[in-house]
Amino acid sequence: MPREPRQITRRKLQFFFGLVLAGILYAQFQLNEDAEVILTQRAPRVLAAETSDVDPFEKMIRRDPLSALKEARDRHLRSVKDYECVMVKQELLPSGMSEEQEIKVKFRHAPYSVYMDWIRNPGLAARVLYVKGKWTDPKAKNPDERELAVAQPGKIAQLFVKSLKQPVRGSLAKDASRRYLDEFGFSTTLDLLIKYCDIARAKGELGLELAGESHFDGRPVWVVRRTLPYTDEDGFYPDRTAEIYIDKEYRVPVAVYCFSDDAKNPKNLLGKYEYRNIRFGVGLTDKDFEPKTYGM
Fold first, then answer.
1. Could you tell me which of 101, 102, 97, 87 has the C-alpha nearest to residue 268?
2. d(Cα 129, Cα 72) in Å, to the nearest integer?
3. In angstroms, what CA-CA distances link 224 with 79, 137, 227?
4. What residue ranges do the domains of the chain occupy?
5. 249 CB burial (10 A radius; 0-12, 13-18, 19+)
6. What would the CATH number be for the domain defined by 59-293?
7. How far apart are CA 91 and CA 20, in angstroms?
8. HSE-CB of 164 using CA atoms within 13 angstroms
9. Distance of CA 42 to the CA centre of its chain
10. CA 223: distance to chain centroid?
C-alpha cells in the first residue's frame, strides 16, 4: 500500500511526457505539411517565369507566323553567306510526277551562285552551274531567257557534249522543275512563301497558322501550315496547302510539302522539297562555281 501512490505518479508522468512528445511530433508534421503546401503553391510561379523567357521568335511564330517568316528571311540574309546541303525533291511536272531526286548543292548569296550535282535519279542534266550575270545571251528575244546556266548532260551524252549553256528560265528548265534554278535558296524560298501570303492576306484569302512541332532530319522544327484558294495549275496560286518545316535553330524552311487539296493526300502532291545535311558558312570561293572544277 505505501508504494502505490509512487506508481500512480510515475504513470501520470509517463502519460504527461507522452502527450508532450505527441504534441511535438504533431507540430513537426504540421510544419512539414505547410512547407509542402508552400512549395506546391510556388511551382506555378517558377513555370510562369520560365514561360516569360520563351524565345521572342517562338512567340512570334505562334502569334503571327507571317511576321516570323519575314524575320526568318531577314535573319538568314544577315547571318549566312553560303552553305552546302543535300536536296531531296519530287514534283508534279507537265509530264507527270517525277521520280524522287537527290541532289548535292553548293550555294553562295553574293554573287548569287548555285551548283547542283544529281546523285540519284538525274533528269535532263547530271550537273548544273549558275552564277548570276556570268553567262548571258544578249540576243535572246525573251528577256527572261537571257540568263544562262552551264549544264552537263548524263554520262552517255557526255561522250558527245561536255557541257552546254541553257536559259535558266527556258522551256527545258520549265519542263524539268516547278521552280527555276535562280529560285533556289532558303531566302528565295521564304520570298516566294511570303509573296503569296501577302497577296492572299490583302484579299482576305489567307490561312496561316502554327500547326504544331515535330522533328526533321533529327532536328526539332515548327510546322507552319498555309492554305490558299488554289484552283489548278493554271491558276494564280501555287498550291492549296503547304506545310513548312522551320528549323528551330537555323530558322529556315528545311522542308516544304505542297498539295492541291486540304487533306494532303499523297496523290495530290504538287511538290516536295527537303534540305538535309546542311552546313552553313563553309567558305565557298569562286573556284566552287567554275565549270572546269567539275569537268564541265
1. 97
2. 27
3. 23, 40, 10
4. 1-51, 59-293
5. exposed
6. 2.50.20.10
7. 83
8. 12
9. 37
10. 8
Rounded Cα distance, 247 and 223, in Å:
9
Q: What is the pTM of this model?
A: 0.79
Burial (0-12, 13-18, 19+ Cβ within 10 Å), 187: middle
Residue type, 159: L
208, three cell numbers: 496561316
pLDDT (tens, 9 = 90+) of the chain, 296 residues, equals: 444 444 444 444 344 444 434 443 344 434 343 333 222 222 222 223 334 577 899 999 999 999 999 999 999 999 999 999 999 999 999 889 999 999 999 999 999 999 999 999 998 889 999 999 999 999 998 988 999 999 998 764 554 567 899 999 988 888 889 999 999 999 999 999 999 999 999 999 999 999 999 999 999 999 999 999 999 988 999 999 999 999 999 999 999 999 999 999 999 999 999 999 999 999 999 999 999 999 99
- The three cell numbers of residue 276 are 538535309
Q: Which residue has the cell 511526457?
A: 17
